[in-house]
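Example with several molecule types.
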Amino acid sequence: MFLGEFQHLIDGKGRVILPAKFREELADGLVVTKGLEDCLFVYTPVEWSKLEDKIREMPLTNQNARAFTRNFFSGAAKGTPDKQGRVSLPQNLRDYAGLNKDVVVIGVGARAEIWDKEKWTKYSAETESSYSEIAEQLAGLGI
Amino acid sequence: MFLGEFQHLIDGKGRVILPAKFREELADGLVVTKGLEDCLFVYTPVEWSKLEDKIREMPLTNQNARAFTRNFFSGAAKGTPDKQGRVSLPQNLRDYAGLNKDVVVIGVGARAEIWDKEKWTKYSAETESSYSEIAEQLAGLGI
DNA sequence: ATGTTGAAATTCCCCCAAAAACATCTGTCT
DNA sequence: AGACAGATGTTTTTGGGGGAATTTCAACAT
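Resulting structure tokens for the full complex:
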């Protein structure tokens, strides 16, 4: 279970330091993928394989499914944090999320997310103001 | 399981260097064939034979099925990477996929794909929008 | 409030492995 | 026999991964 918001830097080699609170859960591996709203999703191996199973069911013969599958798998990277809690992010993922130096790592329950700091600031400002409105619309989802 | 996106060059003899992360899985052989959307599909021997079985089940009476089967099998080539992790691609396959010098090798779960760099750039840009659409739907399914 | 201790974060440096260019060998065809 | 095309091997360079050291921060106790 990932909670909280943490500021970090990316080093010259494209590595992020994981928040200390996330280390234990991710110690034996993690998977990073292209997420929604231009951020990266970070899953534990268990969560990932659930996802993977769903995707594998998609038919090879459907063109949209192919496009999605390609994006999904090619935009994914397995990794293990080193002894200092760092994970290296492949170039294509950094490009996708527009990560430069300042990043924000947030906990979102089952997964963590990595954002470019600026993008996150903007996004959270926008959604915070409409927080209760959004909540209203979610009422139908049974929360 | 193949994941990620990797840039490589084809040498003068028509050989591609396989990404280091794919080597182990392909060490004891691989099958390359004409893929969909002008790229090449690369399978492990195991995955290939699974596919072969599926294709055999297709009705011989369907004209499209016949055409597909012909392309798929006639364009296939078995190979083994050398000690440095290189695979040589037959001329006809290189022509098919329009491979010059810069290629992109991507992991797509059960298979890998080899793309001409330019084509891949274009394709992934075009399909990115459908990615987030589908991802959103999947996210709605509680993933 | 201040000093002390420990852990986390940032920077630096080294080494190994992977890429890319370069070179050699073999066989076949003319 | 020579030349060419194909495949296989070798060398050098570059980039990335990993470790270590220094600094910063935070928590705690005096």
